[in-house]
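Mods, move this if it's the wrong board.
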Amino acid sequence: MSTVAFSSERFSLRVLSRALRLPFTAASVLPYIAGAFAAESAFRAYVFLLGLVTVAATHLSANLINDWADTASGADWQDTTYYDGFFGGSKLIQEGRLSSTFYVGFAILLAAAAILCVLLISIVVTPAVFPAYVLVLALAWAYSSPPLQLAYRRLGEFIIFLLFGPASVIAGFYLQTGRLWSADALFLALPFGFLTTAILVANEVPDFHDDAAAGKRNLVSLSGHANAYILYAFLLGAGLVSLVLGILYGPLTSWSLLALLSIVPGGMATVVLRSHYENKQKLLMASKASIAAQFIIGVVLVVDCYVHKAPVLNTLG
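Not the wrong board. Structure tokens:
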């Protein structure tokens, strides 16, 4: 497998965005923002912005490490077709446009930027933030990189649920309130966690044969790609049920019922996963619909939390 040398002639902002999978950072920043807005306390804008940069930089760093690790394992060499970044990686290494060394180096740079932000947060909030972040960063990298490679050991789905649900929401909430535990934050985190994990499952179906050839084991390898739609439907349903629970018992208002519209793209994705599990081009629709479902829930919950907190947003701590 080649690790093609970096070529400035082939480098551009578009290539960098593709390598970073930049648009998909919405999956991490939306739950963070919702958690920050759900906190009924004086809004600390500078802490919020430092946390936002940390979340985005960590996600992008993990994306780069994921591409590097899946290239090293052989998973991304099984099919070198580029599927718009929804599954199978960015393929820039396979196309010879960027090197594996570039991916690792830029991942380290982003992680360093995130650590710097966390150090600043530790000074103005509490030193306890730093070890908590180190654990999050370690899990984000260990998701696909050696020696743990959690995504190869049927732990990937749990890690995604944890990082894109509770970890992101509680981070936003904690930085505003100083409280680590909150039932409101937990209720808010569950829809994000379930819907983001559903995206992962939708992306694992087209990679089923490639992952098997590279020894990558996940929940879809356990269920089989023909039955993965059942797992997907369960995660979608769990996300919608937890949304309703968040309205009944958590911080959400009845306006968040609008997020139930996510059942439309989620239902479409379920149908595609059931009927076209061997057709990668068709499965692109399932991945896109899954992201749309998570995005709908994310935006609605952020807006609901923002409106609910509007009276204190002008009180900058």
